[in-house]
C-alpha cells in the first residue's frame, strides 16, 4: 500500500496503471515530494536508450555517470538516448510527464547498476513532476527482479577537477588532441589544431580598450569597419530591452546615448569572436541554444553586478563579455573533436543529472572550461576573462579575479532554476552570495528582470543569427 508522508500528499496520486503494477508485485511505496535531501547514491536516474534492435532501460545512482561506451561493450549494442519526441509519445501513453525508474512499466530489457540495491531505501522518479517513489531494499529487489545487475556506471566523485593552472590545462588539451583526433603533435598546440587568429575587428577594439585617450568616435569608427558588427550594435541599442527613446540613427548614437562606451567595447569583442567558429550542427536535446544562453547569461550578470555594493563591483563591461563568452569552449570542442562531439552530446542527454563539463572531462580528458580559458590566453584576452571561463563552475573559487567567475556561476545557477542552460540545476551557496555582497532576493530580482524581457532578448538573438 502507499503511504502519505506530507500534508499536500492528497494532491498527487499515481496513475492507475503504475498503482496496479506495484500492487501486483506486492511492492510497498511512499509517494513523497521530490527533495534534494536524499543522498544521491540512493536516488535513481533512469534513461531509456535505443538502437535498431529496440529499447533498453538503464537505472543508475545519481552520483554516477552512465557511460554509453561501457554499457555498449557490456551488451554488444550501440545505444543512444531515445529522442525526446519519441520519449514524450511513450510517456503520454501512460499519462506521465517524466521517465519513471520502473522496469515493470516497459517492455524493454533493464540494466541496473548493482550498487543501487546495497541501500536500505531507494528514491525513484515517479513519472509525475515534483513527486518521487521511496521503496525499501526488498521492494527494490522485487522491482529489479528481471533486470540485469552490473557495474557499468562511473562514480562522479572521481570526475571533479582541481585546476593547477593554465600550463596543466594546456597539457590536458594537448593530450586530448593527440588521443582523440588524427592530428599529430607539433611544437606548439596552436599549430597542431590550427586555431584561427583573433579577428581583426576584435584586435582593433581590444587596442582601444587599453587606450586612455580613446573616445566614442574612435570606437564607432572601428565598429563601422565591420558592417555586420555595426548592424548588431545598432540593433542592440534599438531593441525593446534597452527601451531607448527615439530612433537610433548611427553607431555613434547607439554608443553615446544608449549602450555606453564600455559595454559596446566588450559587446563588440564578444560578437566578433562569435564569428570565428560555427555553431555545431549537433547539440544535446533540451539544451538552450548557444547564443540565447550567452545573451541571457550576460544580461543576468549585468543586473547582478549593478546590484552589488559599489566598492565590490568589477568592471561592468568585462562582466558582460564574460557572460557572452562563458560557453565558448563548447564551440571549440565541436571544432576540434567533431566525431567525439556527437558522443559528448549523446552522453549529456543520457546524463541530465551530470554537469556537461564533467562529462567532457570523463570522455576526452579536457572540458569546455579548460579549452575556452586556454583559447582566451592564446588570444591575449584580459586575464579576468581567462579566469572567469576556467572557474565558472566552481562556486568556492576565491582566488584572483574571483568576482568575474563567481558572477558567471551565480548567473548560470539562477537561470538553471528556470530550466535555461544545459545540465542539472546548480546550487547557490550562501557563501557565494556573501562574497559578492548580494542576498537571494537581489539575485532573484536580477534574473526575473531578464526573464520578463525574454521576448526582447530573443529578438536580439534572432537579429544576431540573421546578420552573422
UniProtKB/TrEMBL annotation:
The keyword Coiled coil does not apply. The chain crosses the membrane at residues 316-337. GO terms for molecular function: aminoacyl-tRNA deacylase activity; kinase activity. The keyword Ribosomal protein does not apply. Keywords: Kinase, Membrane, Transferase, Transmembrane, Transmembrane helix. Residues 195-395 form the HDOD domain. SUPFAM superfamilies: HD-domain/PDEase-like (SSF109604), YbaK/ProRS associated domain (SSF55826). InterPro entries: HDOD, RNase_Y/CdgJ, UCP036888_HDGYP-like, YbaK/aa-tRNA-synt-asso_dom_sf, YbaK/aa-tRNA-synth-assoc-dom. This is Histidine kinase. It comes from Halopseudomonas pachastrellae. The lineage of its organism: Bacteria, Pseudomonadati, Pseudomonadota, Gammaproteobacteria, Pseudomonadales.
